[in-house]
Amino acid sequence: MKNLKKLVLGLFFLGAGLFISHSAIAQKPAGKPWAAPEAAVKKKNPVPANESSIKEGKELYAQHCKSCHGAKGKGDGAKADKIDISCGDFTSADSKKVSDGELYWKTTEGRKPMPSYKEKLSDSERWKVINYIRSL
Question: Is the separation of the CB atoms in 14 and 79 below 8 Å?
């Protein structure tokens, strides 16, 4: 019985060690700093973050953002592995510090590998996506 406990404990710690080392290797760099203009940072979201706008934002997010940013906004979407830098984790403390205006500007302008959504989504739709991101 003692040997079985030792074996189970050993396998547990081996598995935990492999998981931790794989997680550390799998992390990608954040990419070059991407600062929005001050006017964009200060811009307020004109679309109320209500049930309706968040619901529509979620649908738009699923169509346009989920493949890279993941279903829960953690940057782990199906296409994330094909990108050299991190897709960003919208649920992280750093992301929470970014203003709605800055998120809107980045979504509008884009920067490789992030596409611009200026022509793909209306102003209102982009703001709704941000309302959804804030709900994550």
Answer: no
What domains are defined for the chain? 1-30 (no CATH), 31-135 (1.10.760.10)
Start-to-end C-alpha separation, the chain: 46
SS3 114: strand
Which DSSP letter does residue 27 get?
A: -
Contact between residue 83 and residue 113 where contact means Cβ atoms under 8 Å apart: yes
Token pair listed for 33: 């700093």
Residue-wise pLDDT for 54-109, tens only, equals: 999 999 999 999 999 999 999 999 999 999 888 889 999 999 999 999 999 999 99
